[in-house]
Amino acid sequence: MSFTSPILKQYRQKLVTARKAVQVVKSGDWIDYGAFCTAPRTLDEALAARVDELEHVNVRALAFPGKAKVAMASAKGNSMTYNNWHFSSGDRNNHDHHNCYYIPFTYNEGPGHYGRNIKTDVCMVQTTPMDHQGNFNFGIGNSFQRAIIDNAKTVIVEVNTTLPNCLGGAGESVHISEVNYVVETENQPILTIGSPKISDVDRKIADLIVEEIEDGSCIQLGIGGMPNAVGKLIAESDLKDLGVHSEMLVDAYLEMFEAGRVSNLKKNLDPGKFVYTFALGSQRLYDFINNNPSCASYPADYTNKLSNIASNDKTISINNAIEVDLYGQVSSESSGYRQITGTGGQFDFAYGAYHSKGGKSFICLSSTVTDKEGKVHSRIRPVFDPGSIVTLPRTITHYVVTEYGKVCLKGKSTWERAEALISIAHPDFRDQLIKEAEKMRIWVHRNQTSSLVKAA
User: Fold this and answer.
1) Residue ranges of the Acetyl-CoA hydrolase/transferase N-terminal domain (predicted)?
2) Per the annotation, does 322 bind a ligand?
3) Which among 157, 77, 154, 143 is positioned nearest to 111, based on CA atoms?
4) CATH no. for residue 412?
């Protein structure tokens, strides 16, 4: 590209330091950060440095990679309030210290909130370097970035050469003509994570799920050890012609592809393509998706649109949970008043997968959890503690799986649900769960002669 190029001229005119770029922020402004690894690092630090100059500035982020500097700065007073659509471990820690507030939403509705329900004064997003046509790519964090930019008064891009260039799909880039300021950085490597450790319990649960998957199924995996265990077992299986349509792309998909399990050729929607809205994994995964035409990055209102999920036959949705109650409600985002993650796309894929032809939705969790004091608790509960959020209402939950088995809750009455869920609870807790179910009036007399009671 020539130095006299009009595109390059625009770039150079808009190139400023981070310190100068954040001067555009005024008291009372709403600031939106890029999602996941497209969150600005240099601009975040520069904005946090203005904590004593501003009042009532609000920042929205989505799973910030680490701990946002503005969140830490907000602890010093009331000048900045940090809000988040979905918690990373750093966001969770900030929430524990009253420096972060959660924004409830379902992922498919994320883009629609901008311009309809909320405003953005300044958008700050990390991107790849500008290409010859003047485009900055959002890399592994498409999400609802375009919707933010389309509704923002000011757009600042923070360039990082370590972001992979993720082809569309749609909504994967912004043009220099739409950008107000460009900030170059020291190109700090983006966050990479290894595959979660897979326990014996994870593997038992994965075995129960994999036996439900057929050739030609379309797979969605949530984050965590159990969904990744399913991916690894699929890679080791003889399944074939699987497809990928998922909000998140993780290393398990790469393992499935390299093992010859994924072709994407049987999909009704976007055949031949890995469809996703963000990626989170190893550098090997990022290298795989970089400029790869078989991978298509889309906004969340495409990947998580209920009709799009349902359009592929035999869609299989696999997600974690924190707890399940005896009514079949699923809590996957909070424990009591402690917000841990977020709703994300769990509702979208649980609903969409069930409405796919031959589709199935699985919620998986270990039967017990051990607290910091070493006490063991059942994760199948009579009812949730006050403050625990229902991520999936009982009307949506399809399969629930623990290491003790899997049960389908669709079409079942309250007593049938209770009996089914107690049957996959840890044996040490079944008697007490039966007593609680009786108090809740969801246990009938004929259950007393069931094989469940005999085994409890």
Assistant:
1) 9-190
2) yes
3) 143
4) 3.40.1080.20
The SS3 call for residue 393 is: coil
Share of the chain above pLDDT 90, in %: 90
CA–CA gap between residue 42 and residue 160 (Å, rounded): 10
Per the confidence metrics, is the pTM higher than 0.90? yes
Per-residue pLDDT tens digits for 147-178: 999 999 999 999 999 999 999 999 999 999 99
Residue bearing tokens 């889309």 = 298
Angle subtended at Cα 320 by Cα 359 and Cα 99, rounded to the nearest 5 degrees: 135
Instruction: Give catalytic residue positions.
Output: 247
CATH number for 114: 3.40.1080.10
Q: Annotation-wise, does 309 bind a ligand?
A: no
Q: 263 is written with which tokens?
A: 């072709």
Question: Which of 125, 154, 184 lies at the terminal end of a domain, its last residue?
Answer: 184
Q: Is it the case that residue 448 has pLDDT exceeding 90?
A: no
| Mean pLDDT over each residue of the chain, to the nearest integer | 94
Q: Which of 184, 219, 254 is the last residue of a domain?
A: 184
* Residue 375 structure tokens: 């006490």
| Residue 294 clears pLDDT 80, i.e. is over it | yes
Phi and psi, residue 287, nearest 5°: -65, -35
Both 172 and 247 in a single domain?
no
**Annotated binding residue 225:** yes
Q: Which residues pair with 135 in a beta bridge?
A: 175
Look at the chain and report how many structural domains it folds into.
Answer: 2
The tokens for 434 are 């039966």
Name the residue type at position 215.
D
Quote the CA–CA distance of 343 and 345 in Å, as a whole number. 6
pLDDT in tens, 365-389: 999 999 999 999 999 999 999 999 9
The answer to whether 351 and 254 have CB atoms below 8 angstroms apart is no
Model confidence at 8, pLDDT cuts 50, 70, 90, reads very high
* Stretch (H or E) spanning 249: strand 248-249
Residue reference for tokens 């299986």: 237
Find the domain containing 84 and state its range. 6-184
Question: 31: which strand partners?
Answer: 59, 122
